Structures
1.
Amino acid sequence: MKSSISRRIFLSLLAATGIVVISMLLILQWNVDRGFLQYVNRLEQERLQKLAGKLEQAYTARDNWDFLKSDPGTMSRLIAVTLAELASPKEQQRLKEPSTESSAEVQQRRFIRTERRLILLDSQHKPVFGDNTNGETVTFRPLSVKGKTVGYLGLHPSTFLSEIHQLRFVKQQKTAYALVAVVMLLVASLLALVLARRLVRPLQELAQATHALALGQYDVRVPVNGDDELGQLSCNFNAMAHSLQNSEQARRQFIADISHELRTPLAVLGGEIEALQDGVRPLDQLAVNSLHMEVIRLNRLVDDLYQLALSDIGALTYRKGELDVVELLVESLQRIEPELERGHLTLSTRLPKDEIVIYGDAERLGQLFGNILKNTIAYTDSGGKLEVTVESLERCVLIEIMDSAPGVPIGTEGRLFDRLYRLEESRNRASGGAGLGLAICRNIVEAHEGVIEALPSDLGGLLIRITLPTSEQSL
């Protein structure tokens, strides 16, 4: 695993699993020791019942416990006989098997442990055999003869295992649990490795894609797997890469278009000047006017670029105040009357009589209306129509400027506001403009919190619709 994140996830999962498995192993081993010891103590309590019967028989024959006081060996013999009788055939067979201890030694040690823990009290709870002064809780069973309680027999519980077969059984159980724990750790390691690689794979793909994106490969994409956080991150990355790709394409197209727009007037200027220098063309007023027109065209392009750059970075100054948008639009229409006459265009207006007050910059809005009107005149066939309407709506004013043919192909209206975009097929201009005017218009409208859009015109041309908030909405 080369990825440090993958290694960390693997180690974290393995450590968490290891802690759980080891904790379970320790709990199980402790439970085996405790549970098996309780089982042994319960078994010894059951065996104690057999010894109780023999003691009751001995008491019946002598009618007292003095025989145990005078001859302590009697209790030892009763214990030995009881243990021998209680030994199952399986236990007897185990005692016959060769081991580190002989059968006699095993039986002797069991006898000693039982004798040391045995307690016998008389009917007055006075000790007859054994010691009950260590403070341990001992469960006594009554000894009855002819319906009369003659004593109490008890056994100190074992605190540890001592017999070989018991220790061997417990050891086998612990070994089995340990093997299970090892297998679980191995399986957990394999699962943690697979899971870590699966979780990190999308991150690795994102890291590689991000590196490629940083190197300028904007067409890189990552697969989207699922709808979780990683899937959402992949979607966001693809969206960002797509946006950067579009921006890069627009930047390259912008540079190419600007280079073309600047090269055209410069080439004309250069050709005109060379013709004058070579004497091919005389230096007269016509030549000077031609050079001056190209300079004006070049100056207009540079000024449009400057205005657009200021607008894009938010440095275009706005001096806003309350103004009558109808009056401002009328002034713009009056300024283009000579151009309308030269283009043989008919102008019709539908303007409200009352003023419509908005909060905006009169100079920039004048630039907005001027650019749209000039663009309309430049792209409308001679003898066409131009219609301007203004309508006051709730909390906004609607301004529509429409012209006659030619129109634009359906679906390309929105691109008219892209910088340097021009339609060469149907709305080809004869002179002036570089496709920046409408881009500047969009920035001016957005700076006034309005909306501008291009739609097909009922007159067969183009409809520019501008929606601006009224003064109450703009403040």
2.
Amino acid sequence: MLGNGIFTQEGPAWKHSRELLRKQFIRVQSQNLDHFREHVDNLLNRLPSSGVIDLQPLFLDLTLDTATALLFGRSVYALRAGIDQDKANKDFAESFSIAQEGLAKRFRIAPWQFLYNPPAFRKACANVHRFVEGYIKELGLGNVENYDKKQYGFIKQVADESQNMKELRDQLLNVLLAGRDTTACCLSWTLYVSHRQIWFPVDC
């Protein structure tokens, strides 16, 4: 699913990807991230008024929404699934999760990862690639100078330094993987540790 990106490269190719993405994230730090408030509101609307709830799946949906908003200039609205989420976005979100689970299984059995390659995994990877490539074509790689810098800043900057659509697609998917999982795990652990600090202070 990831192709040739920062998680799958070594040597000079990895160094090139790292430098490419580092420069873009430095620019992103100065951008206005107020539009992420919409996705936090969607998360809050998904919380029940009472009872027990598993927050981690919601955090995964939240970070997928915010990461796609940052990378693609528009969100896939995973938190709106079952409400008013677009079918293409729904298919992408579901396929991304299936492909990601497959990657985790392949990682655990490395260097025999080729033994795990079921049809569902291959189909999910193909769906993810098709969605991202379709989005890139819709924007028009040849007309990156016409992008709205505020809305499509990240993808424009990566496109400027990518040799072709496949390289751009792979770089975006590598960052999307990191932006979704690591951030969701960080949110989960932050909430867990904060809860323990409230109920079990360190000095008790």
3.
Amino acid sequence: MNLSRRSLLQLPALAAAAADKFPETGWRLKTRTSKEVAASPISIGFETLDRMMFDPERTYPHLAKLGVKWARCQTGWARTEQRKGEYDFGWLDNVVDSLLKIGIQPWFNLGYGNTLYTPGPKHPSAVGWVPLNSDEARQAWVRYVERLAERYRTRVKHWELWNEPNISGFWQPEKPSAEGYMDFVRMTAPAIRARIPDSVLIGLALAGTSALDYVERCFELGLGKLVDKISYHPYRAVPEENYEADLKALRGIAHRYKPGMGLWQGENGAPSTNNSTGALRQYEWDEGRQAKWLLRRLLTDIRLGVELTSYFQTVDMVNYVWSSGQSGQTNSKGVLRGHDYTPKASYYALQYLCAVFDAGTQPAEYLLKVERADPKLELPALQCGTFVRNGYAVCAFWYPANLQEGFAFRRARVSIWSGKAAKLENPVLVDLLTGDVTLPVKPAKSAAGWTFDDVLVKDYPMLLADREAVS
């Protein structure tokens, strides 16, 4: 075909117009602000402000556009009570009110110690030090919790009781024990309940998912009578590795003592650099791997019916503070870079995830089958999830590759029989890493459902969905 000079000059404009027109080409998934999302199971970590690890003011413009509905905040006894009996909640007021203003609901992680009453910590924030070793410390802790609950009773309903009490770094100076933790819960929970009768108390905040004897003993000692939910932090390089079985075991214990008790994945993240400190620091990371990990962690939780899933953290934490003090290293798990607060690939991936997986998207039972397109090319076992959004089908699939080893994308044949469970009339393919929405190649519709002969399987979630579910 011959094109005139005028036609050639018009090509960029024609291409731009075509890009906005569906279904001829495709489009970019539209993100939503947190205010625009009515409800969601997705939370962002806003921890470590008890240690002043970042400037919250620089994060709010980014958080407002992210689409999350929850933020986990540490309350910081040591930062709030720096003279005995005097409380300055100004810093925490600013955090809570700023988050609420942009459509994000704070939930509190309650801790840590205070050197006025718990001598011994190497850092003023008293990370991990528990106020159980003297009557003065106990009484001071209860007074602090009472003041905290009274102040935030109309703004914060969800309260998590301590952080990772089952490991020594966060349970000092004594050895971690279920008996010690339950002593703390029995001291703390009534102070909140008395002031916030409809409060939701979250127990354990467990490091990992394998301390089942610890969990069992806590329930034997009455945990289920004092808290409404339990939380856990399942750090692992391959997010899906043994996770479904671990979750089943944890749920099994909780439901034996309190049927229907909900689980919250309260803290989990991956670094974006190789020189990070904190969990998973021993593996190879970059910003692309972090973004893929985030999508796999949160979508696995949603697929398995976890009530809330929280990504740790909002921004990289420079000169990270442990219970032993300043580390001199950066914990690079943020979706914003620590040196200039600019978004990483993980920020945009989280935006796209929030755009589709709000409370309007629920797991649904229908058939999704992924087979190898090339008989000579092996297709490993996949992670798959089927959902319904406003009556329309949303199907997720990915290979749970070790992100440090890499994965060659595979072509697959995907079949979907959604029946009456969810409508699938105008199928599209969604890349949650880039936000690209395109028409699938070689779609074939029959009375039973749809088949797509040439779909890429990647090491992060792709979606096949009805256009109405994602537009």
